[in-house]
Amino acid sequence: MDVSEMIARMDNIGFEDTEDDDKMEVINDTIWDIESRALWPFLEKIATLNFDGVVAYPSNIPSDFKSVRWLYDNENLFTLWPERVTTIYDHYPNASGDPFAYYFVGDNLRLHPAPAESTGRYHLIYQASQPELTTTSVEADILLPKRHHRTILLGSLWRLFKNEDDPEQGMMFQQDFENRIEQMRADLFGRQHQRADQIFVIDEDDEYYSPFF
User: Which of 131, 135, 147, 178 has the fewest CB within 10 Å, making it most exposed?
Assistant: First the structure.
């Protein structure tokens, strides 16, 4: 279902006089609402990061980057672990050599110490954010799998009825929307049924790597 089809279905339900800008506002709001509820598998992406040897942040961070799932040094074969920016400045301000940690300043990902110039050395698995859709966005622009696109329509209709001060109609679509999200959880997180997920014991010997420990 592309965006024009969603708008057409809204019109058929009675929102033909509602401006397209208002419809797009609730469509995007619904998508970002869904996105915020879980670490959805459909938002997992992979990238390799490049650094210019001058600054601590990558020169090619993906435009849809939202958060780190895993960051790995392909040359030294170890995982980089997150630290708070205050911890970096308090404990490792003069660190040198290869990066051993990453941190954020605002929304900007940085490695510490600042890495040498490299291309594709750091392997990033990240959680993406759905880019804003427009009235001309096609089905392929929507990261949510096609079989769940009706969830976007239901959430958008709930918001439209709420804006129209029609709580009874809105409640019906809200309930359908919430039910579909729970169905999505069962469907999208069940990616393998060969065995149960393994649980690994973590104790005091399972500290992450740091050259300072």
Answer: 147
